[in-house]
Design goal:
Rossmann fold, 2 domains, eight-stranded mixed sheet, elongated, binds NADPH dihydro-nicotinamide-adenine-dinucleotide phosphate, binds (2S)-3,4-dihydro-2H-pyrrole-2-carboxylic acid
Amino acid sequence: MTRVSVIGCGNMGGAFLKGLARSGSHHLTAIDLDPDALERVADHATETTDDTAAAKASDVVILAVKPDIAGAVLGDLDLSAEQTLVTLAAGVPRDFVAGQTEAQVVRIMPNLAAETGNMAAAATNEGLTDEVRALLDEVGEFVEIDEELMDISTAVNGSGPAFAFYLIDAMKQGGIDGGLDPEQAETLAAQTFKGAAETVLRDDRSVDDLIDAVCSPNGTTIEGMDVLWDSDADEAVVDAVAAAERRSKELAEAFEDGDE
Ligand SMILES: NC(=O)C1=CN([C@@H]2O[C@H](COP(=O)(O)OP(=O)(O)OC[C@H]3O[C@@H](n4cnc5c(N)ncnc54)[C@H](OP(=O)(O)O)[C@@H]3O)[C@@H](O)[C@H]2O)C=CC1
Ligand SMILES: O=C(O)[C@@H]1CCC=N1
């Protein structure tokens, strides 16, 4: 059993709590100033409180507040060297956090799929403990990276779910336009993305080979692929990733300038 506190139980903190609660094997303390946020995670936590000091009793503290208030919350935290602080705020440098606490600090970039055990995350080599590795393993997959790659990870796997939701919605709309009921179109589109992702993760073939496997000779898929290959759809996705990466770097610059 690991004693885990989550400070900030909104979208990301809540997803972590729900994911970690699935095993039923941890002591989970949900900390938030907003009673409604605590209410939303109450069924997934061992205890809920608005008292940040409760984090003192945990092995691992997950700081899941917005980047612009991370500094203020850290100022009120009095953690010890035996504890590990996991920071997941976009653009907030690990050193900035480590400079304000006695705890060991690891920076990660998770995503909302922690809730269902399907998170894709990156964690800095620095500060990563086996205890935190085990927690990340429980809620999905993670890679260990140098911190300089955190901005691109933020774009690919942190912001990535939003980009994937957008693409699923476009596929769903195509189904609706063809006459499918919206609910059925959503099921078919979302399950198709889920299945395709699973195939990419488990199959040794390249993405090009997998596309080939779907394209029957003189069949339907190649007609659709020709439309995609002739479009700028791939460039738009690459541009979206680059824009999110750029914003992550901008957020980090504010900390380097000492603005936060
Ligand atoms: N959303 C996502 O998909 C991802 C987010 N992140 C990172 O996670 C962090 C949180 O983002 P997100 O979950 O979207 O934000 P949310 O606004 O959904 O959640 C933040 C929560 O923290 C609460 N809070 C504010 N001040 C305090 C405080 N002093 N003590 C305790 N709780 C407080 C907020 O309450 P109130 O609303 O009343 O202010 C809110 O409930 C960010 O740093 C973001 O970069 C990382 C990866 C993915
Ligand atoms: O949009 C954001 O800033 C956060 C970080 C990654 C996902 N959500």
